[in-house]
Write a structure and sequence with these properties.
Number of domains: 1
Radius of gyration: 28 Å
Helix content: 55-70%
Oligomer: single chain
Distance between the termini: 85 Å
Shape: rod-shaped
Largest sheet: none
Structural class: mainly alpha
Order of helices and strands: HHH
């Protein structure tokens, strides 16, 4: 009776899985899922808003951000 190693079937399965992943990327152009793109854009927008809010004093000193003069008080938050 011969003892078979379990590593051989597992390694061939892994090789086939890796080969199928690399073959799929070589075959055509892959695109990102639309939900992933939307999530990335939304997170980037939130990041920009937070950064501008954190550095508003420096941006006003450089003249890149308005001072709020000329804005109707109705549109300002309480």
């Amino acid at each position: 009776m011969q003892i078979q190693s379990k590593a051989l079937p597992q390694s061939s399965f892994l090789r086939r899985a890796i080969r199928s992943l690399t073959a799929a990327s070589e075959g055509g152009v892959e695109t990102a899922h639309p939900l992933l793109v939307f999530s990335a854009v939304a997170l980037f927008t939130l990041f920009v808003i937070v950064e501008v809010d954190l550095h508003s004093a420096q941006l006003q000193a450089l003249g890149l951000l308005g001072h709020g003069i000329g804005i109707d008080p109705v549109f300002l938050s309480p």
